[in-house]
Amino acid sequence: MRLAFDHEIAQLREEFIAGGGVERLALERAATVATVTFGVAEVLAITAQTAVFGDEARAVMVVAPVLGFGFILSLLVREVLRNRRPHAAPEGWAKLWLGRVGRAAFALARRIGGRPVEGAATTHRATELAISMAAGELFASLPKATRRTLGDVPKIIESLQRDAEALRAHRDTLQESLAEAGDAAEGEQYAEVRELRDQLGDRHREVVSTLERMRLDLLRLHAGAMSVEGVTTQLGMARDVAQEVRRLLEARGELERFLKR
User: Rg of the chain over CA atoms, in angstroms?
Assistant: First the structure.
């Protein structure tokens, strides 16, 4: 869950900054401190109204509305600053579900809930599809002249998506073979299999990262924060990654024959 929150927060922050947004975290923290301070002071002032009499009570009655106005004003400033950052909401949910409250809720759910149902992992595939679809939509919304200049982008995006899916599938196959081998999988004869499994995992993450960089570059191109030449440079790097993936997948054929034996 932490990885999912971190990925979502990082992606939203990149999009916010690429679109020209500025994080005013110091001002937001100051507004939060002011909100808490005015709120506590308001509660104390209201409590004091019932405990004092005479001139002291009249003084408290004058101060209480001022504190209430300061509380509302600082709260509004804080919310406005938070709403400017699209990743503020996931950050709040991450603190909730990854903190004590979330751990307690999940522990309670495990006690009273049924047995978990195991299924095929689709996280990586969903990530690949989501990123490639988003990048394709960004490319399609570019001006016609820019699309002609970057005509290879859709093909490279599609190729990287296929590569990521193939790497994931081959890695899962090797992992299943190692699981079936049991304790023998830790022996020297399976060292090459373990090494290739790790290489496939590393390459998969690299391909997904390359897809994400292309999506962010297209987003920056929309915002005017990047030139067409910069995107072209990324295309060359993406081609290099695709070639390395091809070589790695070809090496898997020999291991398949070994696993069959």
Answer: 27
Q: Exposure of 38 by Cβ count < 10 A (0-12 exposed, 13-18 middle, 19+ buried)?
A: buried
Question: What does the pLDDT look like over 191-205, one tens digit per residue?
Answer: 887 888 888 888 888
The Cα–Cα gap between 142 and 137 comes to 9
Please, what's the b/e burial string for 114-144 (b: 16 or more CB within 10 A of its CB; e: otherwise)? eeeeeeeeeebeebbeebbebbbebbeebee
Range of the structural domain that residue 55 is part of? 2-112
Final residue before a domain boundary, out of 81, 112, 143: 112
Contact 218, 139 (CB under 8 A): yes
Render 205-234 in DSSP notation, one character per residue: HHHHHHHHHHHHHHHHHHHTSS-HHHHHHH
159 and 94 co-located in one domain: no
Task: Let me know: does 34 contact 70? Beta carbons within 8 Å.
Answer: yes
| pLDDT at residue number 37 | 92
Give the residue carrying structure tokens 């297209």. 218
97 and 226 share a domain? no
Question: What's the whole-number mean pLDDT along residues 59-85?
Answer: 81
